[in-house]
Amino acid sequence: MSVAPTVSRDRLWDTLMEMGKIGALSNGGCNRAALGSEDCRGRDQFIRWCRDAGCQVTLDAVGNIYARRRGRNATRPSVATGSHLDTQPHGGKFDGIYGVLAGLEVVRSLNDAEVETDAPIDVVCWTNEEGVRFSPPLAGSLAFAGLVDVGTVHNARTLDGTTVAEDLRSGGFLGTELPGSRALDCFIETHIEQGPILEARNKTIGVVTHIVGIRWSIVTVTGLDSHAGTTPMDKRRDALLGAAAMITTLNQIARNQDEFARLTVGKLQITPNSGATIPGQAVFVCDLRHPDAAILHSLEQRMHAAMRAIASEQGLQISIERSIDIAPLRFSQDLIDTIRSTANELGYSNMDMLSGAGHDAMNVARVAPTAMIFVPCKNGLSHNEAESATPDDLAAGAHTLMHALLARAQSKSRQ
Amino acid sequence: MSVAPTVSRDRLWDTLMEMGKIGALSNGGCNRAALGSEDCRGRDQFIRWCRDAGCQVTLDAVGNIYARRRGRNATRPSVATGSHLDTQPHGGKFDGIYGVLAGLEVVRSLNDAEVETDAPIDVVCWTNEEGVRFSPPLAGSLAFAGLVDVGTVHNARTLDGTTVAEDLRSGGFLGTELPGSRALDCFIETHIEQGPILEARNKTIGVVTHIVGIRWSIVTVTGLDSHAGTTPMDKRRDALLGAAAMITTLNQIARNQDEFARLTVGKLQITPNSGATIPGQAVFVCDLRHPDAAILHSLEQRMHAAMRAIASEQGLQISIERSIDIAPLRFSQDLIDTIRSTANELGYSNMDMLSGAGHDAMNVARVAPTAMIFVPCKNGLSHNEAESATPDDLAAGAHTLMHALLARAQSKSRQ
Prior knowledge:
2 copies of one chain form a homodimer.
Chain A: H1 9-20, H2 37-52, E1 56-59, E2 65-69, E3 78-83, H3 97-112, E4 121-125, H4 139-144, H5 150-155, H6 164-171, E5 184-192, H7 197-201, E6 205-211, E7 213-222, E8 226-227, H8 239-257, E9 262-271, E10 277-278, E11 281-290, H9 293-313, E12 317-326, E13 329-330, H10 333-346, E14 350-355, H11 360-364, E15 370-375, H12 391-409
Parallel strand pairs in A: 3-4, 3-5, 5-15, 6-14
Antiparallel strand pairs in A: 1-2, 2-4, 6-13, 6-15, 7-11, 7-12, 8-10, 9-11
Helix pairs in contact in A: 1-3, 1-12, 3-12, 8-9, 10-12
């Protein structure tokens, strides 16, 4: 595709590969925990590139980086894009990073084509999306949306024992701008899908319409520690046996619901976890996701009831605590339509889809029209060093992003 | 019961309670890890009590303690009893300790009644039955039976970083006698049942006929780490979901076999064990027990096949490694008959039963006629601070032990 202005596939790729050298791991991935030394190097690199591209770089009080390409009308709210540069401990080269560097590529391409926009364009790097080194995850976008206080972020303690405020100061990322004080015309985040759907359906662009709702239940099943050799099978109160039946049943309930339901038990700890002792306790986390709030709630209630029934059958005690409750989010219809029609005009195969993962965009959506563009990633793999995407698909996403941003930035009807 | 000579119920109980003060925990239990400071205090106390009772105390090269009450015929092999004084980290006051102190009570009672036996009687404290602080567990009886070298035990590294040889020397427990060089006429170990059967059937004495065979399989199920939100249910390779189905099926197979089969998954670790990631790996230990070697083998093979079938159905890889293989053991028929007829003569309700747990007796059985006497423990609970047994039941066990030992020690027909 080469609808003008276009983006440079190879420059975008080379920039991604250059960033991938910072915190590089042996199997092709990256480890840049937010505000740790490698993330700071990545942020410094990003800021240099943005300044080289003529952008004005501003930091806010939680270290979010805004690189502004000026518009004709300095009073208009900015048309914004971006994502995050921090990674999981064994993360890939694309999750988050792509969304930031696609924004940079848009700026560079507009410069090359000498396109002047009416509204300014901001490329944003949100602080600590992954939450590996400190909590909360998504801290930068949460603060921008007013969902967490600057003080809370500043006082958060990192894995290295520092506070976030100390790290921001020592890294040179402590800005004076109040997060959220900057008006945004819109925010479009590009991201690898982190799932297998685009690849399976052979589509280049995912037009993200929703982010699913997420509920976590922390389930504690209590039986009785007893001796593996001396306790008859029918006298046992085996917490793991109960948990096993629950895990099987929960998966069944999710599969029987519809194609959008997701249920995962990813965290499980049994006690005392000794080969010759029947486990007296099992604690596990149920991660339940659905784009429809009513179905999400009904699924959760059915799952809780099913677990209670199994506990009762097996003579086990159970307690269930809801620890995360994020409502499903529908993105801006206007932006969704813009992205879809842009992809069509540019000739990229595309489909509407959900995001099953949380993203900074879901927080920004509280304060500005927001949407997301997904591109395929190999085998749907993410949070993994083997995370992979093709230069062509990445360029297609950036190209779509550029024209969607232009549609907003050149429009005279807004503001 | 008071068939003469009898034992002192209260003295036995008081001695148990006195020993229970050493390494006492806040919830009524004890922590005396083998050759740690508390275990050394317990061993010193036991030796003082034995010397006060007129015994000659000898140590062997792995720290097994032999307290001998002399017989008329010093050349006869000793009629032996005993167990271990070391405990689990949150152990009770009875597991092991009872078997040692019941032997001491027999000596004291024979002294009181001025009974002279023909054969000497040895009360033995085997070193490190529990294996908490160093390996192998059952070290003392393994060395006695020639199943492990003295050097191997001496070189074993403890949790405190010392070697066992250093601990034996510093504690004053490094004897010169070669383990196993002492001839035993027989060995009878008394022990709390550690299971619920005697209590449920309202019997006082368990005449232990077998120790079950034990096989451990270490099972590694491998799927693929992937994102909980973005991976459709039908595209997952969830190692925990596979393990859950296996755990359920393994339990079913054991229950369907017979009342003697025991299957426990007590140890399980999933990776990466993160709430929002589908687990790519689950490693668990299957502890399988049965008193019949052929059935044990057939059960194991059926379980392995069932797990492979589940892995295949779910698109998971599986590897299964057998890590422990202990053959079932039948105790000495002669001793079994002696214990049963002794219990009957003394008027104690009794039943033949299996031991589902391993004990020092199973090693000693390799080199001398051996059997065990069980007494009830409350709710079958053991390896737990709440471990409990009644003074009456404990005295009944010691009384039965005394008369069974006397039957051997007074017999002129032996040796």
